[in-house]
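Extended Data, record Protein phosphatase
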Amino acid sequence: NPSQRAEKNKAQIKMEQHMVQTLIEIDGRIPGALRVAFGISGRPTPAPGHHDEVANFAAVLLAPRDGASEPMDCDEPVAPGGLRMVFESCYIKDHDEDAHFGHAAAGVVGVADGVGGYRDRVDASAFSRGLMNNAYMEVVTAAPGTHVCPRTLLERAHMMTAAAGTPAASTAVIVSLAGRTLKWAYVGDSGFLVFRDGRILARSQPQQHSFNCPYQLNSERDGTSVAEAEVGEVPAKEGDIVVVGTDGLFDNVTEDELERIVRMGTALGFSPKNMAEVMAAFAFEAARCGNRDTPYSVLGRSEPGRAFFTGGKPDDITVVVAYIVPSSL
């Protein structure tokens, strides 16, 4: 009825106003050096004859590394004592179909991305939110000190979400710190990166049937099974940084750019919250830029009729950043 539509419109306007203010605040936290290094607008040009200290900082600190980044050797001495995960998140909404959770004591984080193809039929956020809520409830009801197995957790969350007949579908990734080992399980193109000393140590590779068509979990018997999830682990070390996100991050920001953001954030003493906000803000700007290459446009150019395709992909952007620190801190 008209009154319900009016209330819905008011709520939508209020949410949009809140998001605009949130984006202004996040955008203000992008350091000038990052803008210089990546060519992002919004920074005043220095007066003629004045030394540009920000540009100099960007050139030194954020220079791309020579050659492609390769996984680093993990065969190194393990320091005594335990480790724990300290994390924060940033979520920039587009259709509001992403979901995420984290549990500090259990050392586990996860993100999920509702598949937009269901948007015209049902609530496309239903399955992603169901997955993350059920995963969280499994963690909080487990015995204290339980080491979380991401694949088992994802499987249980999927079973409960499907058993409830939840509509739509979702990609998902869960990463846990089990003792001194980082473990993961993921389905689709929600993914993660593990950084050590500013370089990528481990990474996910998107599971896709075709361009922009990821593997996805749903309530149907013919859907993707958790048995198809990619799983793995790597020894953890104090100082490692884990970035978990939906494709709103990884479609718009390259691995090299993320390495450089991590190096900058580490040098400037960023907290996990600072790091997550800068990554999300950069992804948001890149998603709406039509004249630069992104992982999405590079992959898209392999499709027929897209030979000159450039630009990003506007989407929900979820970023969770976790620092691996001594358990005594």
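Summary. The longest strand covers residues 83-92.
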